[in-house]
Amino acid sequence: LNTFISHTFDHSESDTYSYIVIMSSFLLMMKYLSMLILAVHCYGFTSITSPGLARINIPTRQSVMRLHMASKAKATLTEETTWRLRFALNGVPTKNKRKVGELFVVDVQFLLEEGYEPPQGLVKQIISEPNENENVQYLKVSNGRWKLSEDPNDRKDGLWVWGLFEEPLYPFMLLQLETEEYSLPGSEGDAMIPLTLYAQINHKRDKKTGEVVLDAATLNLREVETVKADILGAAKVDVFEEVKVGQLSLRPLTDSSSTAVL
């Protein structure tokens, strides 16, 4: 160091002293910089205090991720979560006896009715604010209900009541939606008739967080056929047949763009 100083400052005592002060300050700065780098890898907010400097709080990557997760509301089957439903309909009937295919969006909330087992409730449509960048068709829902269920074709007769499961196992949501008539653009007054749509949706809920996941599902219409219940035809019964008319996907919305309520 002395050799370097002597060559640099021509043996001037004042210059040598200045250089030592500068080098000492530089080494001190590097020390606190290394402390900062190590602190950034710690969990939570790090605090650094140095002589002559104020206390500095620096958010780390972990703390930012933790705040992000806390601000992200979990998806639930309550009015706290708005779900976006996307309908890809095919072969649905119109007033002019045609069959058409259309893509629609519906924003809804699943309202939970207290005191029922299995959990069930109403479907409330949320009207979104217009967005010029979105080229979507919004279908209006006049009525709707949902209900969690065991497999309708393989019920366990509520075995959870007898303590065989920690809680009810409901792997499905049964969804019923009644839609309003929808005028088809450029079709000379033709419109898609009101529909009653049914879907059996795979339902999963995280036991620790309560987060709900709803998978894509098939959309069905129920066609009713009245048949004779006896040989004489005195008694008749309605037989329902479900006909596939499209696909349904569901996802929770993470913004507050949907405000107006029907």
Mind explaining what this structure looks like?
The protein is an alpha+beta fold and 262 residues long. Helices cover 18% and strands 42% of the residues. The chain is built from 3 helices and 14 strands. The protein has an 8-stranded antiparallel β-barrel with strand order 3-4-5-6-7-10-12-13. A hairpin with a 5-residue loop joins strand 3 and strand 4. The longest helix has 28 residues. The N and C termini lie far apart (80 Å). The C terminus is likely disordered.
Secondary-structure topology with pairs:
Blueprint: H1 2-9, H2 13-40, E1 45-48, E2 56-59, H3 61-71, E3 83-93, E4 99-112, E5 120-128, E6 141-149, E7 172-179, E8 182-183, E9 191-192, E10 196-205, E11 212-214, E12 217-228, E13 236-252, E14 258-261
Antiparallel strand pairs: 1-2, 3-4, 3-13, 4-5, 5-6, 5-14, 6-7, 7-10, 8-9, 10-11, 10-12, 12-13
- Can you count the helices? 3
What percentage of amino acids are in beta strands? 35-45%
Which spans have pLDDT < 50 for at least 5 consecutive residues? Answer: 42-58, 62-71, 157-165, 256-262
**Backbone structural class:** alpha+beta
**How would you sum up the major sheet?**
8 strands, antiparallel, barrel
Q: How would you describe the shape?
A: elongated
Strand and helix order: HHEEHEEEEEEEEEEEE
Q: From the alpha-carbon coordinates, what is the Rg to the nearest angstrom? A: 33 Å
Helix share, percent: 10-25%
As laid out across the biggest beta sheet, the strand order is: 3-4-5-6-7-10-12-13
**Measured distance between first and last alpha carbons:** 80 Å
Please tally the β strands and state the result: 14
Q: How would you state the average pLDDT, rounded?
A: 76
Quaternary structure type: single chain
